[in-house]
Design goal:
Layout: H1 2-11, H2 16-24, H3 28-46, E1 49-52, E2 54-59, H4 85-98, E3 102-107, H5 115-128, E4 133-137, H6 143-152, E5 156-158, H7 166-172, H8 179-191, E6 195-202, H9 209-222, E7 226-231, H10 248-261, H11 271-276, H12 280-286, E8 291-292, H13 299-302, H14 322-331, E9 335-337
Parallel strand pairs: 1-8, 1-9, 2-3, 3-4, 4-5, 5-6, 6-7
Helix pairs in contact: 1-3, 2-9, 3-10, 5-6, 10-12
Bound molecules: iron/sulfur cluster.
Iron/sulfur cluster is lined by residues 62, 64, 66, 69, 71-72, 108-109, 139.
């Protein structure tokens, strides 16, 4: 089994049954070998610095009804909010003063009538902080909208494909959303010159390990600049709210596989990892992740952006807790890298 790890590190690709073997193996020594190799490759690529992204949760209003998501449109228990332009700019100013050089505007998916408002906001951020990267995570839109935002100054776009498996995709999403369209959006984003992030949920209801292997293969083919992988966490007000959460171990194993497959990828150790295990964020980093996204949203809105239950939102998950994050990283021999943290492959 170690030879599979060596082959993946050397050739950046395996056969489907070999990925399956890595996902299912039980020998703790080989699992540690996989994780250790990925860690070594991440350190070769990025040193021991961890890039930070300032996450600003722009709005919890969404036109979609994904079955796993706490802010889906049919969830009537959510108090909806949208930050004003001034609130977003205040978050950016606060983040910039602190040292952040990447802002991530994340929110539910809006109709196209709000696209110009977003473009104006991007332009404002670009003018005020020209040295910062602007990342968007605002869902599926027409190519023209992505082009509008790119022209306004956005650099990166995160759009998890969630699962490449068509049947699973249809079980997790309403009928009007298709994997084909989502993949088309990812292609458009790449064509438009964005640094693009794709990724999946691990342990989603009905997900098989074979479906995860499909995702690994898709990611290797598509070669996104960023790979967002987080364990599924149920949200009690959703139709999938009674399913068990995904596994931190399996997610860390996937970080390691993706690090060996695409060494230069930017891989966040996600908030969902920190939510499921107190040492989840560190375990992600030790498995090859190299990005953390602290939450810069106004404190009063954070609990309203509940994509899943018990989301980690205190301590190092807020900018006020950055010292805690520094200490946490130092405890495993890492430090914060305050640069923009662009993808080494543009
Ligand atoms: S996953 Fe995204 S698109 Fe789907 S309901 Fe939630 S915020 Fe909206």
């Amino acid at each position: 089994m170690r030879s599979l790890v060596d082959t993946l590190r050397e050739r950046h690709e395996l056969a489907p049954n070999q990925y399956l073997a890595l996902l299912t193996m039980h020998d703790p020594q080989v699992v540690e070998y996989l994780i250790g190799q990925a860690r070594e490759v991440a350190q070769q690529q990025f040193g021991r610095g961890i890039f930070l992204r300032a996450l600003i949760e722009l709005s919890n209003v969404c036109r979609n009804d994904c079955l796993y998501c706490g802010i889906r449109r049919s969830n009537r228990h959510v108090a909806r909010y949208t930050l004003t332009c001034d609130q977003v700019l205040d978050c950016c100013e606060q983040g910039y003063q602190f040292g952040f050089r990447t802002f991530v505007l994340q929110g539910g998916e809006w109709g196209e009538e709000r696209s110009q408002w977003i473009a104006d906001l991007i332009r404002e951020i670009r003018q005020n902080w020209p040295d910062c990267a602007i990342t968007l995570s605002l869902g599926e839109h027409p190519r023209e909208t992505y082009a509008l935002w790119r022209d306004a100054g956005a650099d990166r776009y995160l759009l998890r494909h969630e699962t490449h498996n068509e049947r699973l995709y249809s079980l997790l999403h309403p009928r009007e959303l298709t994997i084909q369209h989502r993949l088309q959006c990812l292609e458009w984003l790449k064509e438009l010159g964005y640094q693009v992030g794709a990724g999946i949920m691990v342990g989603a209801p009905f997900q098989s390990l074979k479906a995860i292997v499909e995702d690994i293969q898709y990611l290797i083919d598509f070669k996104p600049h960023m790979i967002g992988i987080g364990p599924f966490i149920p949200q009690s007000d959703t139709p999938l709210g009674r399913f068990p959460a995904g596994s931190v171990d399996l997610t860390a194993r996937l970080y390691a596989i993706m690090r060996l497959a695409i060494p230069h990828a930017l891989i966040p150790s996600t908030t969902a990892m920190a939510t499921l295990a107190s040492d989840g964020r560190c375990r992600g980093i030790l498995a090859g992740a190299n990005v953390v996204m602290p939450n810069l949203s106004p404190v009063e809105n954070r609990s309203q952006y509940a994509l899943y239950d018990n989301k980690a939102a205190l301590g190092a998950e807020s900018v006020q807790g950055i010292k805690l994050l520094e200490d946490e990283l130092a405890s495993i021999g890492y430090h914060i890298d305050w640069s923009r943290g662009d993808s080494p492959r543009q």
